[in-house]
Design goal:
- With 212 residues, the chain is an all-alpha fold.
- The protein folds into 2 domains: 75 residues, Orthogonal Bundle (Endonuclease Iii, domain 2), CATH 1.10.1670.40; 109 residues, Orthogonal Bundle (Endonuclease III, domain 1).
- It contains 13 helices and no strands.
- The chain is elongated, with a radius of gyration of 19 Å.
């Protein structure tokens, strides 16, 4: 847990400080072993599915490549759409995965080593050019694979709902409101985001009541 981040967030925002006190230690632990290619393929597989269903499809997909933990972008070129359909992928997801593979080979999607040297904004710009990859998907990669410390996915429903509960709002805040308020959390907005997600898991008094 980053004690410097927690000290900054408590000082900068007493309301978020209450969330931190009630939730406890930050358990965010990025998985840095996955390549950008693998992370994006897994993200596409998980779109509009629950975790168990997506994992079943991914397991069938990986079984197409015996002896490999996960296929490479070149491996995708060697299988047919029918094989991918048999795993459970929709036609739209197949098109997205093929685009991810193409852009990995072209260099638009950076390697694990290259991506560590790129700023967040450039990563978002490059990866959102890929079919089926939106800003939210890239923000999840920045947070949970790359461990970037200052990411605030303000379009995320859970983030906005956690903000609403913590601040006792009657209505769901707009993304721009969360972003504006979140300026005070820099440069630790990733940690703040994690606590907003957790805020929906704890009981809160009715809107307008004290939040402490």
């Amino acid at each position: 847990m980053n004690s410097e981040a927690l000290c900054h967030l408590r000082r900068a925002d007493p309301v978020l400080g209450t969330v931190i006190r009630r939730v406890g230690n930050c358990l965010l632990a990025p998985d840095t072993k996955r390549s950008p290619f693998e992370s994006l393929v897994r993200a596409v597989a998980n779109q509009q599915l629950n975790g168990k269903a997506a994992q079943t499809i991914l397991n069938r997909f990986c079984d197409l490549f015996p002896g490999k933990r996960f296929p490479s972008s070149a491996d995708i070129e060697a299988i047919t759409d029918d094989q991918m359909r048999a795993c459970g992928f929709s036609r739209a997801k197949i098109a997205s995965i093929r685009d991810i593979a193409r852009h990995s080979m072209s260099g638009l999607i950076p390697t694990s080593r290259q991506i560590t040297k790129l700023p967040d904004d450039e990563i978002v710009t490059r990866l959102t050019e890929v079919r089926g990859v939106g800003r939210w998907t890239v923000e999840m990669l920045l947070m949970f694979q790359l461990g970037r410390p200052d990411v605030l996915p303000a379009d995320d429903f859970g983030i906005r709902n956690g903000f609403r509960l913590a601040f006792g709002l009657d209505e769901m805040p707009k993304p721009k409101e969360v972003l504006s308020h979140g300026e005070r959390w820099r440069p630790y907005r990733t940690t703040a985001s994690w606590y907003l997600w957790r805020a929906v898991e704890i009981p809160w008094p009715a809107p307008g009541s004290p939040r402490g």
